[in-house]
Amino acid sequence: MNTTGTSSASPTPAELGFRMPAEFAPHDACWMLWPQRPDNWRYGGKPAQATFVEVAKAIAESETVFIGVNDDQYENARHQLPDHIRVVELSSNDAWMRDVGPTFLTHPDGRLAMVDWEFNAWGGLSGGLYFPWDKDRRIRLKIAEMLGVQRFFTPLVLEGGSIHVDGKGTLITTEECLLNPNRNPNMTKADLEKLLGDFLGVTKVIWIPRGCHQDETDGHIDNLCCFVAPGEVVLTWTDDESDPQHAISREALEVLESSTDARGRRFTVHKLPMPGPLTIAEAEASGVDRLSSSRPRQPGDRMAGSYVNFYIGNTVVVMPRLDPTHDDEAKAILEGLFPGRRVIGVDAREILLGGGNIHCITQQQPKA
User: Which of 29, 61, 87, 177 is the most buried if burial means most Cβ atoms within 10 Å?
Assistant: First the structure.
């Protein structure tokens, strides 16, 4: 396993021919982590663990699934998960593999590599969601060692949920997240675009102003908008002009409709209805430990629920079921967009209570 830094003498991943493929490209595996943090997951994570098991089982219909587990939960996780899901000891501070895990790259000659971004728990000591995050910072290195692949390290603070790519040179992200001063305060938009190009092989960045309303990640793109094919995206949407999400989604739509991708194509935007609005119930909040080092979960707090937060596998799309009023409509839209994949809905409120959803707890390992 080789590690490459960011010195001017070292060629960038893009210069070496590596790039980040789209999520809808073929995978070899999916990586997840096991929830147990009692100040984020109610009742010691037991309800969330049951939901993670269902997500893992759905994805495992399509590809190999690895679940990283802290040692004190290893036997419990192994007992709950089917034998064909691979449980590995991989310590973490919490279970958001999309953000703490590696961003995988592929090369035309068949090699697999990864980007090891810096991680500061969504804002560090200025708005971050928990402390410490030392175990999370080691996850990329450990996975690189397990797989024996080249690791490109960069001190750029970036979470995987803040970016989506089409695999053809285009990346979408939000200004709210990547330009937030609690991530990389000394970097300009131009600086970030250069680094994204250097490490992911993209040539065009589409900047959406904001992410979903009340998204505690500072507006990750994967909760608002994602690629379903080159030149095609889905966007969370509400027609309710009194809802704060309406203005956010309208802004995003205007940017997308006035932009072209790296190949010069206009975007086709498919609207996915917003669930809810969804709020935390009294019984749900009361099961969470209250610690000064983590974000509180209060009754009545609005959650950033979104059907866009789904996972695209080789033969399945695993989507959250969040609201009986809109679940079937969202599923039907996704079935129309992914005719070659089976759309599986998983009751995912327990993941949303922790601050994210199915895309946030998964990380695809592309086929090398």
Answer: 177
Please name the fold of domain 3-366: L-arginine/glycine Amidinotransferase; Chain A (3.75.10)
Q: What is the DSSP letter of 359?
A: G
Q: In terms of Cα–Cα distance, which of 57, 128, 117 is closest to 94?
A: 128
Among residues 286, 278, 297, the alpha carbon closest in space to that of 348 is found at 278
Supply the DSSP symbol for 146: H
Query: Residue 109 corresponds to which amino acid?
Result: D
pLDDT tens digits for range 246-291: 999 999 999 999 999 999 999 999 999 999 999 999 999 988 888 8
Residue with tokens 């789904």: 310
d(CA 32, CA 235) in angstroms, rounded, equals: 25
Helix (H) or strand (E) holding 253: helix 244-257
At 100, the amino acid letter reads: V
Residue with tokens 């922790």: 354
User: CB-hemisphere CA count at 13 Å for 156?
Assistant: 29
Q: CB of 289 within 8 A of CB of 38?
A: yes
Q: Let me know if 360 is a catalytic residue.
A: yes
What b/e sequence results for 53-86 when a residue is b if at least 16 CB atoms lie within 10 Å of its CB, and e otherwise? bbbbbbbbebbebbbbbbeebeeebeebbeeebe
Cα–Cα distance for residue pair 353/348, rounded to 1 Å: 9
Tell me which amino acid residue 27 is. H
Question: How is the chain split into domains, by residue range?
Answer: 3-366
pLDDT band of residue 3 (cuts 50, 70, 90) is low
> Both tokens of residue 166?
């089409």
